[in-house]
Write a structure and sequence with these properties.
By secondary structure, the chain is mostly helical. It contains three helices and no strands. It has one domain. Helices cover 74% and strands 0% of the residues. The relative contact order is 0.19.
């Protein structure tokens, strides 16, 4: 990954989630949400983060 290519974090996070790696997914998706600006999918990604958090509890 390029250090500031935030959409790549989102894509890798979603891939981790689909592969059954919620810890890695959360790390990448939270990084994306914290750093990306002007993103149109913030609500969808935040909802996915919430789902992953619930699944890992």
């Amino acid at each position: 990954l390029l250090p500031q290519a935030w959409p790549e974090y989102r894509d890798r996070g979603l891939a981790h989630a689909e592969a059954g790696h919620p810890g890695h997914a959360l790390e990448d998706l939270e990084t994306y949400l914290a750093n990306a600006t002007e993103i149109g999918d913030r609500r969808a990604i935040a909802a996915r983060v919430d789902e992953l958090r619930r699944a890992t509890q």
